[in-house]
Amino acid sequence: MQLTFLGAVGTVTGSKYLLKSGDKRILVDCGLFQGLKQLRLKNWEKLPVKPKEIDAVVLTHAHIDHSGYLPLLVRQGFKGRVYCTEATRDLCEVLLPDSAHLQEEEAEYANRRGFSKHHPALPLYTREDALKALELLTAVDYEQDVYLDDDLTLRFSPNGHILGSAFVRIHNKKTSVLFSGDIGRPNDILMNPPVRIKQADYLLVESTYGNRLHETDDPQIKLAAIINRTVKRKGVVLIPVFAVGRAQELLYYIHLLKSSGAISQDIPVYLNSPMAVDATEIFMHHRGEHRLSPEQCRALNRTAHMVNSVEQSRALNETKGPMIILSASGMASGGRVVHHLKAFAPKPNNTILFVGFQAAGTRGAAMIEGAESIKIHGEYVPVKADVEFISNLSAHADYEEILTWLGGFEKPPRKTFVVHGEPVAADAMRIHIEERLKWQVKIPDYLEMVTLD
Questions:
Q1: How far apart are CA 4 and CA 21, in angstroms?
Q2: Which residues on adjacent β-strands are paired with residue 139?
Q3: CA-closest candidate to residue 327, choices 270, 389, 384, 386
Q4: pLDDT per residue of the chain (453 residues) written in tens, 0 to 9
Q5: Kind and range of the H or E run holding 292
Q6: Which of these, 297, 206, 299, lies nearest to 259 by C-alpha position?
Q7: Is 130 within 8 Å of 57 (Cβ atoms)?
């Protein structure tokens, strides 16, 4: 086997790994780069492998930094199967067309307002491209062997990050390699814990929180305090959320807080993301993957007013608080939330609350680091609202949780590759694994190719 690292090295985005076994080429994950401009520009670069020469794609899960390049791959000539779990397929049917729509919408807005350096500004891909990509998705059950050819076998195992997320194990008669994807947390309020894996010859492990531990206090207490403080000022709590996972978790926490009386039942809550609305509905169809009962799933839908139309979204910007708005995207890198930021960030009675990892170069990262203004649609918007961050609502395991999961291996992999992390986090994860487990560890470089003996 030969493995080439085409993304998610030196960064948490753009997940792509090309695995060659015999004459087969398998692309594991097909994600978009996000965050810093030099990373986003990679989305427009030519892949080192011709898409038509890739035999199959395997997705660890549906998040755009793992699946969002797929429409472009198909447009460039890929015609093979895309293997994923059933829930990943269902979520991709929501996420990929939405990703295309956002790109088309932002290109149109840039052309209309004239703030792009490109004339005309073009989307990376279109909704039509996304729909063609969806035709190639092939759903596979967890713990079912899929024969990619006579000598190559694929298996998905639950990893607890979001609905449908999976560890991906691919092996031939000589060698096995395990791709961790994004590893979930053992005590997540929504998702079942990651399963333990006993053996793999080679391992790719994520390191998003490789240098950090999640806070151990109850996030409900901090969430209630932030909401109540903002409500007292008659302000707006704007929460940029990832449409899959964090949106549903926040809705459930707000439901619990209202039910317990920790926050007022009368505070209006809006879920302003059609994609998140659809993803919340999908939760009800995959009961075996999460901890919520049918009644608790229904409570998610009752907790918020679902905002669908653009007109309703715009109207929220003119609505006075107190209120809570959940809106995608989670790093404030695009979507409806940026229009809300333009409306609410300049006012000191409001709060911008982040609840997930913020990649370098995103507006979310800038605000958490104390930026006094952020650039939106070619203009600088002052940030006078309170900016808060609840780190332990993340769906990524921290380094201790990852080390505990790694402790389930019956023997060390021949080599472990640390990926999907900013440079400092990845190196910290390398040190933790080397010192704690005494394993052979490497941080690969972008476009590096290694032979898996």
A1: 12
A2: 84
A3: 270
A4: 999 999 999 999 999 999 999 999 999 999 999 988 899 999 999 999 999 999 999 999 999 999 999 999 999 999 999 999 999 999 999 999 989 988 888 888 778 776 666 778 888 999 999 999 999 999 999 999 999 998 999 999 999 999 999 999 999 999 999 999 999 999 999 999 999 999 999 999 999 999 999 988 899 999 999 999 999 999 999 999 988 888 899 999 999 999 999 999 999 999 998 888 888 889 888 988 999 998 888 888 889 999 988 899 999 999 999 999 999 888 888 888 999 999 999 999 999 999 988 888 889 999 999 999 999 988 999 999 999 999 888 889 999 999 999 999 999 999 999 999 999 999 999 999 999 999 999 999 999 999 998
A5: none
A6: 299
A7: no
The model's pTM is 0.90
Q: CA 362, CA 351: separation in Å to the nearest integer? A: 18
Q: Give me the residue spans of the domains in the chain.
A: 2-212+395-451, 219-393
Provide the token pair at 250. 């926040």
Tokens read off for 129: 């491209």
Distance CA 300, CA 266 (A): 16
Q: Which stretches does DSSP call E strand in 137-201?
A: 137-140, 146-149, 152-158, 166-171, 176-179
Domain 219-393 CATH (choose: 3.40.50.10890, 1.10.3720.10, 3.40.30.10, 3.40.50.10540): 3.40.50.10890
Of residues 228, 245, 262, 246, the one with CA closest to residue 351: 228
2-212+395-451: CATH, from 3.40.50.300, 3.40.50.1000, 3.30.450.40, 3.60.15.10: 3.60.15.10
Q: Contact 355/252 with Cβ under 8 angstroms?
A: no
Count of other CB atoms within 10 angstroms of residue 311: 8
Listed in sequence order, the residues at least 6 apart from 203 whose beta carbon sits closer than 8 Å to its beta carbon are: 177, 178, 180, 413, 415, 416, 417
| Both tokens assigned to 349 | 């009675």
DSSP-assigned beta bridge partners for residue 26? 19, 56
- Beta bridge partners of residue 280, listed in sequence order: none
Measure the CA–CA gap between 197 and 226, rounded to whole angstroms. 39
Side chain identity at residue 397, one-letter code: A
